[in-house]
């Protein structure tokens, strides 16, 4: 009974970590330089450049590469789901394997099935996120194909169209990011098979890791610096056009 209560506390802690971090990162990204915020600005610059080019083979190759990464995770998720569902028929064997590991909590069928159900739910959510991201990149490809050419880069209507393309790409990237987060948190759920206290610790570690990578990593610093460089170049270009 003590382990059952601890399992419940660990599960609540996990859900608070996942839902809480998702809400926190979404709000913080609105006023703090981070990967999501800065990459959105890069996408706007990218789409503004795209409408000025007659040949868009490079853009097509870049978008295809992004879609290929998402397709890999979507197909991998299906394989993982198949493996997790197979474990439901091997609960007794899984229980004996866990019980043979030192320092693990005493397992029982109900708790193991709950853990497997949580893993199944997580990877189903991941599959939905990855496939939705793939669809949105498909929408973006259609918009890129329909985008007119503006060699001068001064057409305001086409600039607004370019921004909408960036918004679609940004939404596709968000879905991809949410899918990747499910993989991070699934690692925490794996630790639950050993002990609820380990589950709590790994859940907190996952939140710390995600925060460091999305807000304080060297990649964020470089992406932010690049965003400011592009913004300054854009301002200089606008000043030059006004002088002319």
Which regions contain 5 or more consecutive residues with pLDDT less than 50?
238-244
- Average pLDDT confidence is 89
Total DSSP helices: 8
Instruction: Characterize the largest beta sheet: strand count, sense, and whether it forms a barrel.
Output: none
- SSE pattern, N- to C-terminal: HHHHHHHH
Task: Report the principal-axis shape.
Answer: elongated
Distance between the termini: 79 Å
Q: What is Rg? A: 23 Å
Helix content: over 70%
The total tally of domains equals: 1
Number of strands: 0
Pairing-aware structural class of the strands and helices?
mainly alpha
Which range does the strand content fall in?
Answer: under 5%
Describe this structure in words.
The protein is mainly alpha-helical. It has 8 helices and no strands. The chain has one domain. Helix 6 (156-192) runs antiparallel to helix 7 (196-216). The termini are far apart. Residues 238-244 have low confidence and may be disordered.
Keywords, please?
mainly alpha, 8 helices, elongated
Concise description?
The chain is mainly alpha-helical and 244 residues long.
Summarize the topology.
Blueprint: H1 2-28, H2 35-50, H3 57-87, H4 91-99, H5 109-146, H6 156-192, H7 196-216, H8 218-243
């Amino acid at each position: 009974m003590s382990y059952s209560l601890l399992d419940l506390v660990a599960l609540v802690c996990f859900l608070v970590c996942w839902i809480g971090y998702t809400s926190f990162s979404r709000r913080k990204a609105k006023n703090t330089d981070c990967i999501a915020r800065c990459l959105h600005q890069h996408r706007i610059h990218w789409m503004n450049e795209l409408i000025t080019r007659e040949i868009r083979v490079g853009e097509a190759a870049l978008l295809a590469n992004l879609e290929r990464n998402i397709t890999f995770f979507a197909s991998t998720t299906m394989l993982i789901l198949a493996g997790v569902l197979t474990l439901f028929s091997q609960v007794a064997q899984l229980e004996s394997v866990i019980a043979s590991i030192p320092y693990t909590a005493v397992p029982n069928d109900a708790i193991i099935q709950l853990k497997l159900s949580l893993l199944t739910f997580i990877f189903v959510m991941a599959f939905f996120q990855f496939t939705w991201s793939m669809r949105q990149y498909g929408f973006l490809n259609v918009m890129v194909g329909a985008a007119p050419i503006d060699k001068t880069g001064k057409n305001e209507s086409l600039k607004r169209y370019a921004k909408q393309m960036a918004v679609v790409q940004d939404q596709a990237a968000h879905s991809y990011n949410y899918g990747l987060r499910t993989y991070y948190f699934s690692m925490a759920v794996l630790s639950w098979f050993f002990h609820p206290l380990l589950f709590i610790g790994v859940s907190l570690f996952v939140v710390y890791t995600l925060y460091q990578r999305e807000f304080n990593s060297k990649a964020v610093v470089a992406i932010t610096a690049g965003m400011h460089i592009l913004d300054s170049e854009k301002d200089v270009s606008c000043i030059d056009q006004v002088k002319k």
